[in-house]
Amino acid sequence: MKTFITNDFLLQNDFAKTLYHDYAKELPIIDYHNHLPPKEIAKNHVFENISQVWLAGDHYKWRAMRAFGVSEKYITGNASDKEKFLKWAAVVPNTLRNPLYHWTHLELQRYFGLNHLLNSDNAEEIYEKTSSVLQESSHHTLGLLQQQNVEVVCTTDDPIDSLEHHFLVQEKKTTPKTLPTFRPDKAYAVEDSKTYILYIEKLASASEIVIDSYQDLISALKNRIDFFHDAGGRLADHGLERLYSFSENAFDSEILFKKLLNGKQLTEKEVQFYKINTLLHLGRYYHEKKWVMQFHLGAIRNNNKRLLSTLGPDTGFDSIGDFSQARGLSDFLNHLDSSDQLTKTIVYNLNPADNEIFAAMAGNFNDGTIKGKVQYGAAWWFLDQKDGIEKQLDTLSNIGLLSCFVGMLTDSRSFLSFPRHEYFRRILCNSIGKDVENGELPKDEKLLGKLVSNVCYYNAKEYFDFT
């Protein structure tokens, strides 16, 4: 059976079709947050088969396969790449109404020109055909990105990273521009003092700064921010359950740091303070460097301890948390804003019950100095699907200004994930088209076309200013 993804997929009226085809479809992509491996971009990596580029590291697919009763052997285990693909193909017809069903067929169509629904009957043929196509230069990593008109990708990188592959891409002057994002989570992950000490030793080596005190730690992190800046980095990102409320002198960070160096465990409150105090130091330096600061909040990670112990983190056992967000987020942003050191900031929410909280909080710290200075970020992770995207757009529209929104990102580890920008653009255009049809917006193509093109591309281009 041929695919249901037609030229007007998700576009339910003529005005929505006009907006998408004339104002969104052809715009370049600025993917300002993803987890692509920069080495594979720098080396223009060639994937042997579709499993390597499509299934490896994709915990969305892994969760679906486990839910359908597929053995771990065919997910992260020692089965062959072909066996894993055949198992995934058998699961696909059973992902109906899950976003994976849309993404799967969008990706097969956009990258390989395949217009048939994937299932067990055609799986072997599709495996062989796609694996053959992946050997062509148009389907090496750079080709895959260029096919989707990707202008910028911002990878996610630890402070100790050498960024050698980013520099290599820049030397080659290839498209897309590949820039690092500073992700310092391990610099304040002090729940386990032994693990933390090992990380501090690596940070000291990377920064060439002896770290004997908390102030040394901050100096080392600033050193690495400068290094990332020289590599073209203009963003920082942080993943936490939530932010916490503390006065800045609630504890002494130097004393806490000495406790950690001596192998002692901090109390829960000490851990929380250490994180916040470190983030405040970083936030002030981001402001000095004119960076964008991002916070991904609300995930409860590593829930299945049995499978975590055998498979490790980031393998599909994280979910939506129910943390109290408003007070901690307010206090943290206010600490920085009170001294006028709050940089451009994007806050991403994982719990849909908190959508309005995040949108309203972002608006508190827009001070008229920068268009959209504090952003309520795109629908993220479990919310990165049609319903979640629509709700994020509606919440932002109701409480803030959709016209200032910097748009979508992939947050992905896969080079085949970029049709998610198309998915977002279609949903955006359809939402506006429905409002026009309902008489809730003027049928003004120029006005609404500008809104669409700004959200899909131009706002991000202006906001991040990667030039």
TrEMBL record:
Origin species: Spongiivirga citrea
Enzyme's top EC category: isomerase
Protein name: Uronate isomerase
Pathway: Carbohydrate metabolism; pentose and glucuronate interconversion
Superkingdom in the source lineage: Bacteria
GO molecular function: glucuronate isomerase activity
Family per similarity comment: Belongs to the metallo-dependent hydrolases superfamily. Uronate isomerase family.
Pfam families: UxaC
Keywords associated with the record: Isomerase
Database matches in PANTHER family: URONATE ISOMERASE
GO aspect biological process, one term: D-glucuronate catabolic process
Enzyme Commission code(s) on record: 5.3.1.12
HAMAP family linked to this entry: UxaC
Substrates-to-products reaction catalysed: aldehydo-D-galacturonate = keto-D-tagaturonate; D-glucuronate = D-fructuronate
